[in-house]
Design a protein that fits this description.
The chain has an 8-stranded parallel β-barrel with strand order 1-2-3-4-5-6-7-8, surrounded by 6 helices. The longest helix has 18 residues, at 176-193. It has a single domain (6-244), classed as Alpha-Beta Barrel (TIM Barrel). Helix 3 links the parallel strand 3 (57-61) and strand 4. The protein is built from 11 helices and 8 strands. It is α/β, with parallel strands linked by helices and 248 residues long. Helix 5 (104-117) crosses helix 7 (137-148), helix 7 packs across helix 8 (176-193) and helix 10 runs parallel beside helix 11 (236-244). Bound molecules: 2-phosphoglycolic acid (PGA). Residues 10, 163, 168-169, 207-210, 228-232 line the site of 2-phosphoglycolic acid. 2-phosphoglycolic acid binds at residues 10, 163, 168-169, 207-210, 228-232.
Length: 248
């Protein structure tokens, strides 16, 4: 069975509501059959939900809390995100891990909370430069997978994003070979710990300095099913070009 292709935009903490509206005056749904997912900052979820109109275009939160509701000042309930029409929750982005102390244990709770709320978790994994240079890429990624997916309901869909930390926001993209190698190993690992059917159908996106000029080559690799795009997703034209590189 063919896996779906996904182009996801991680807007991080950028854009005001006015800037988000201006973005959608320029952005057009792609010719490619790839699914598009916008991850705006939480405060822009409503604005984005009003700008996108069905089709194969969805949106989600960049982060959720692992409880449904409660006395958690400043946090965002997965149920609320879902009730706004979101389909996805990004979980365990490297900035959440490094800057906000998110552990594999927390990502596991969030994966569970997302699925319980009816959101599809998009779990981010990836090694630092020091870990890669020490030859530990696979160990790190497998641990993030094993622990982060320990609460997974494997009957429900989920998506993975492999984002080597050294490639995020640095302009240093993994080569198509480097990325494909890790993606293939992640897929093999999913087959081993979950099932071949799940491994065959779960999209694994690549993230880390994806730009219009490197997306084509990366998208041709058999185990790269799409992209999680930061910087280049802030510009409608660039994100559209990246999306169109995905032959769904
Ligand atoms: P980048 O960010 O495309 O700016 O490297 C990717 C990400 O953080 O998801």
């Amino acid at each position: 069975m063919a896996r779906k292709k996904i182009a996801a935009a991680n807007w991080k903490m950028y854009k005001t509501p006015q800037e988000a509206e201006a973005y959608f005056e320029e952005w057009e749904a792609p010719e490619s059959k790839a699914e598009v997912v916008f991850f705006p900052s939480t405060i822009l979820l409503d604005t984005v939900s009003m700008e996108i109109s069905g089709g194969n275009v969805h949106f989600g939160a960049q982060n959720i809390h692992f409880e449904k509701e409660g006395a958690f000042t400043g946090e965002t309930s997965p149920e609320t995100v879902k009730s706004m029409g979101a389909q996805y929750a990004l979980i365990g982005h490297s900035e959440r891990r490094t800057l906000f102390g998110e552990t594999n244990e927390i990502t596991a709770k969030k994966v569970q909370a997302a699925q319980a709320a009816g959101l599809t978790p998009m779990l981010c994994i990836g090694e630092t430069l020091a870990e890669r240079e020490a030859g530990k890429t696979l160990d790190v990624v497998k641990k993030q997978l094993n622990e982060g997916l320990s609460t997974l309901d494997a009957k429900k869909p989920f998506v993975l994003a492999y984002e080597p930390v050294w490639a995020i926001g640095t302009g240093k993209v993994a080569t198509p070979l480097e990325a494909e190698e890790v993606h293939a190993q992640i897929r093999a690992h999913l087959a081993e710990v979950l099932s071949k059917a799940i491994s065959d159908t779960t999209p694994i996106l690549y993230g880390g300095s994806v730009k219009p000029n490197n997306a084509d080559e990366l998208s041709q690799r058999p185990n790269i099913d799409g992209f999680l795009v930061g910087g280049a997703s802030l510009k409608p034209e660039e994100f559209m070009q990246i999306t169109d590189s995905l032959q769904a």
